[in-house]
Design goal:
The chain has about 280 residues and is of the alpha/beta class. It contains 9 helices and 10 strands. The strands form 2 sheets. Strands 6-3-7-2-8-1-10-9 form an 8-stranded mixed beta sheet, sandwiched between helices. The protein binds 3,4-dihydroxybenzoic acid and fe (iii) ion.
Length: about 280
């Protein structure tokens, strides 16, 4: 049977893609941030996951504000990155696990989630930057990817609780898949940030650290927030934290924190990196 081995959270800021391309990882601005990744590299190297399911938000590349699925899941054999206007280099296509995608989609519809199933889906920095951070030099080997996009650009957005429950349903689906696969779940984005408007640059460190504490073994204490609460407490783009909750929902076993790093600011954002093992 397929098994979920753990969850990883990461920022997905496009500037990180630029820093990687220019090899700036050890420069003073970037060092503390990039130093948060080697423990994750070591764990991935040891675990060798077969599939990475990636919760992220599409920032207007595949789904613009005129057509915005609340939940969209890739069911393709390949995903292409496209120039999304941030000036970051595109990455080569990544392979999908079409059959596991369909298995997950069937379970989600049975569980009354109204998803958009995408047999073609271009992926943006929400997926590609974390892939580059976790697997430097595109070193995914045989690993396949399933992108799961949650709307976080156009109100109304799904609540933290609903995203956690989506993750739960996906976790059940994955663990009922017959093939012996090791699956890792990524939640990308967050933490507190606001990119424009009067509060541009707003970061709430105290809130971010509280979320990192609670997501390990008390995630249910994070589910009462509304999207409006997150905007107020964590900035206009703070709701990206729902990707973390999707990831956490999918971890059904006993969860142990193996590693964390928090760094502010990277660009305009509180950057949180976590590695959670699922027993
Ligand atoms: C930044 C953060 C994001 O989440 C994003 O999607 C784009 C940019 C930033 O802080 O620069
Ligand atoms: Fe973002």
């Amino acid at each position: 049977m397929a098994r979920i081995i753990g969850g990883i959270t990461s920022s997905h800021i496009p500037a990180i893609g630029n820093a990687i391309e220019r090899n700036q990882q050890q420069e003073p601005y970037w060092k503390d941030f990039f130093d948060g990744y080697p423990p994750i590299h070591a764990w991935l190297e040891q675990q060798q996951p077969d599939v990475a399911v990636i919760f992220y938000n599409d920032h207007g590349l595949e789904f613009f504000i005129d057509k915005k699925p609340t939940f969209a899941i890739g069911a393709a054999t390949q995903y292409n990155n496209a120039d999304e206007g941030w000036g970051i280099k595109t990455i080569p296509p990544v392979n999908g696990h079409e059959d596991l995608s369909w298995h997950i989609c069937n379970q989600l519809v049975d569980d009354e989630f109204d998803i958009t199933i995408c047999q073609e889906m271009r992926i943006d920095h929400g997926v590609t930057v974390p892939l580059q951070l976790m697997w430097p030099g595109y070193s995914y080997g045989h690993m396949k990817v399933i992108p799961v996009a949650i709307n976080c650009e156009q109100h109304p957005m799904p609540s933290p609780k609903r995203c956690f429950n989506l993750g739960r349903s996906m976790g059940k689906a994955i663990e009922s898949y017959e093939e012996d696969l090791k699956v890792v779940i990524l939640g990308t984005g967050g933490m507190s940030h606001q990119l424009d408007g009067e509060r541009a640059g707003f970061i709430n460190k105290e809130f971010d650290l509280m979320c990192m504490d609670k997501i390990v073994d008390r995630p249910e204490e994070l589910l009462h927030y509304s999207i409006r609460d997150l905007v107020e407490i964590a900035g206009a783009q703070g709701p990206e934290f729902i990707m973390w909750l999707g990831m956490r929902g999918a971890l059904i076993g006993k969860v142990k924190e193996l590693h964390r790093n928090y760094h502010i600011p990277i660009s305009n954002t509180g950057a949180g990196t976590m590695l959670l093992e699922n027993k």
